[in-house]
Amino acid sequence: MQGQLQQLHGRTARLGENQVSQTAPISLHKRYEQRTASRSCTAPKAQARSAKAQAATSSNSSSLDWKRNSSQTPIDQLPEPDGDWSLPFIGETPEFKANHWEWARKRVKKYGPVFRSNIFGSDVVVVTDFIGLQKVFGGAHKLTQWMTAPSLEILCDGMLSASKEKASHQKQRRQQGAAFTPDAMDAYLPRVVATCEAYLQEWASQDSVNLVPAMGELSFDFAEGLVVGLGIQGEEKRILGAKWQEFTKGAITFTLDAPGTPFRRARKAKEYILAAIKDRVAEKTREFERGSVKKDTLLSFFASAKVDEGDPLNEPELAMNVLMFMLAGSDTSRDAHKVLLGILPQLPTAILDELRAEQRRIVEKHGPGYSRAAMGAMRYADALAREVLRIWGPADVLFRLAKEDFELHGKRIKKGSTILTSMLYAKASDPRMSAGDHELQSVPLHMDIHQLQASVKPERWLDPHNKLDMAALATFGMGPHSCLGAPLYMQEAKVLLAMIARGYDVSNATGEPVDWGMSPNAAGGSPAADVFLKFTPHQYV
Ligand code: HEM
């Protein structure tokens, strides 16, 4: 399901109709060479330079700050960003897709933290640090406008345009936000627990589990079950899952609506899915009419918020919202769970020991169940899940449109420019994490998934001096459009980690260390080849 709702839940997005993002996969050997290229010791000078350059940087969402022009020079006298957008169509896409870090690193060194490029057939202004992200995302609806691929807009029947204007977006967010409150999270918890239990038991009964397809099934189950709660099983579920794949594969593509095109297949798949959820939506509408609504799914919380706002319940519109929630929550979660579970066999023993020790303390205090209090006490599991998202999070790029001319790092971003925010490079160069090596080697040590001993440090999230919040992950976006589903993903991740820590050993049945590829969304995929895990029951807690 590579073609996901890229802008709603931010993976490497492809822009509209002239998006040709596939490049030839590079060989494993080549990938290794690129990864290790110029990996040398960190220069203290570079460290100091980097820390100084970003001393004022904070990614805390509370400090999201924007000002149209922070320089002394009038905007129309500022220079435009440097860079190369002379190559039309393919532009720098192959280099970007092959190795996002290296592509950004070279250009930041040459042009500074904001430069221009041509990616996926569009001229873009690239923003690569947290100062820039704060301005671009914090300035939503004023300096910048949310954007997505035309194919997706059409498939969602124009509903995504609500995200573009302040008033409609705020209203939409209020209503959608009702599905992610702490009370809503409590309502979903039993289903999350039951789903994780069932999958872990099933995986333990198998000789080995193919990581990526298994996480695809799990995430689809989470998405379908928590959003709409169809309660389907067997063949019916298999067909719906297949239709879902067709829909998401064709959601970001050329808008050519002809027989056999991905867009036509996606449109047909969408109609099938909407028909499948129609009855459940109608049932929910009747519950409202009877005044006996059972709040147990995202749909029910969202519909209640609409009623509270005095909006009449319209079944087709509810169904489209269900589709959007599922779209937002499935592939991103699959990719995040894939890394969370895939790295377990390679994690330093001390981390696994601490995870189990925390679960022992929690069970002693709260009992074996998964209550709100028990979930709240899982601070180490929470920190580990964040750390994995930080290192190899699904969203490494988001796009925005400049609504008006504004200044960034002394450059003029012109109204109408497409802005590509590199969340991956912003994290790589985050002075709270990087020792400066992001300037010297393509993958900085603090984000190197192939060197977990050095990169994974859950404790950095537990030290209040670091002042890290979810925005520091960048992977959930920042500012007014930031991910509403983050608490739901974190709940799933914590339950999975807790159950594994209490009762399973996870080993790599492939026999070789996992090759995660060049970056989370690099051409060639991540992981670069099938990974098989073995789940062995072991009563630790
Ligand atoms: C690891 C999992 C996830 C990741 C990495 C992720 C990432 C993101 C990102 C980056 C955005 C911001 C997009 C932008 O600014 O253009 C976003 C928005 C959103 N996400 Fe997620 N997401 C995840 C899971 C979920 C889940 C499980 C749901 C719900 C079922 C969800 C619902 C949403 C919604 C509704 C928005 C739109 C917010 C708005 O525009 O106001 N996400 N997500």
From TrEMBL:
Top-level division of the source organism's lineage: Eukaryota
Stretch list, region Disordered: 1-83
SUPFAM superfamilies: Cytochrome P450 (SSF48264)
Keyword flag Repeat: no
Keyword Nucleotidyltransferase appears in the UniProt entry: no
Pfam families (UniProt xref): p450 (PF00067)
PROSITE patterns linked to this entry: CYTOCHROME_P450
Bias-annotated ranges (Low complexity): 42-58
Name used for this protein in its record: G7105 protein
High-level lineage: Eukaryota, Viridiplantae, Chlorophyta, core chlorophytes, Trebouxiophyceae
Gene encoding the protein: g7105
